Amino acid sequence: MTNGGFAGHCDWRLPTIQELQTILLAPFECGTSPCIDPIFGPTAADFYWSATTLTSNPVNTWYVNFFNGIVTYNGKFQTFHVRAVRAGP
């Protein structure tokens, strides 16, 4: 029995930058906003964190901007959206 969590699961995590890039409709400049297939549900046309830290400077983390498809990094002190994922069915 699962207690707590969301949707009956407690194994949610932040996606890697590679995983977030796979759900972009197109790379920058996407041409539509939000730049994500509607199958993924409502998505703010905004910045979403990944779990991938910038190797050369660990105070930064990679993110995707679903407004236009930009993939870049910024300081971990920023306030961005998150999109949780899980590995199982």
Provide an overview of this structure:
The protein is mainly beta and 89 residues long. A hairpin with a 6-residue loop joins strand 1 (47-53) and strand 2. It is globular and about 40 Å long. Strands 1-2-3 form a three-stranded antiparallel beta sheet. The model has no long low-confidence stretch (mean pLDDT 90). The longest helix is centred in the N-terminal third of the chain and has 6 residues, at 17-22. The protein has a domain at 17-75. It contains one helix and three strands. 7% of the residues lie in helices and 21% in strands.
Layout of helices and strands:
Blueprint: H1 17-22, E1 47-53, E2 60-65, E3 70-75
Antiparallel strand pairs: 1-2, 2-3
Entry summary:
The chain has 89 residues and is mostly beta strands.
Low-confidence spans: pLDDT under 50, at least 5 residues? none
Strand segment count: 3
Oligomer: single chain
Shape: globular
- Main beta sheet strand tally, sense and closure: 3 strands, antiparallel
Strand order of the largest sheet: 1-2-3
Q: Find the structural class using helix and strand composition.
A: mainly beta
